């Protein structure tokens, strides 16, 4: 199984993802362990959703946006916009229904499965501003969020 690393091109990331069963969360987590937040948000997430029509169906009726602020070296700001049953992603600031702020270290803990979003929030490692119920709605579709 190919591991996605920060130095890989977007096409190489997509090719590595194409080798995986998108429903196997453990395999995805293992492959994405070293991926940067930028690769996850801007490449892996849209590509993965395009390969999972059942998740795309679940996105219908979800309207709004989330801004992820990953602080520290290798982090950044990433917007997820849910509209008309589709997910669009962008890098940079976004006026969002909810903003999630966490460190790159917490991001890595969540990516590896060492912690989940609920634990990170309860431990104060992740801050949420805005519409918390919107994030809870998204977790039903995208459990890793």
State the name of the first-level CATH class: Alpha Beta
- Assign the CATH superfamily: SCP2 sterol-binding domain
- How many runs of DSSP E, i.e. beta strands? 5
At CATH's second level, what is the architecture? 2-Layer Sandwich
Looking at CATH, which topology would you report? Nonspecific Lipid-transfer Protein, Chain A
Indicate the percent of residues in helices: 40-55%
Order of helices and strands: HHHHEEEEHHEH
**SS element count, helices:** 7
Largest sheet: 5 strands, mixed
**Structural class from helices and strands?**
alpha+beta
Approximate strand percentage:
15-25%
- First-to-last CA distance: 24 Å
Give a brief rundown of this model.
This protein is of the alpha+beta class and 145 residues long. It has 7 helices and 5 strands.
What does this protein structure show overall?
- With 145 residues, the chain is an alpha+beta fold.
- It has one domain (10-139): SCP2 sterol-binding domain (Nonspecific Lipid-transfer Protein, Chain A), CATH 3.30.1050.
- 42% of the residues lie in helices and 23% in strands.
- A hairpin with a 4-residue loop joins strand 1 and strand 2 (76-83).
- The radius of gyration is 14 Å and the shape is globular.
Topology, please?
Blueprint: H1 10-18, H2 25-32, H3 37-50, H4 53-59, E1 64-71, E2 76-83, E3 86-91, E4 98-103, H5 104-112, H6 117-122, E5 126-130, H7 132-139
Parallel strand pairs: 1-4
Antiparallel strand pairs: 1-2, 2-3, 4-5
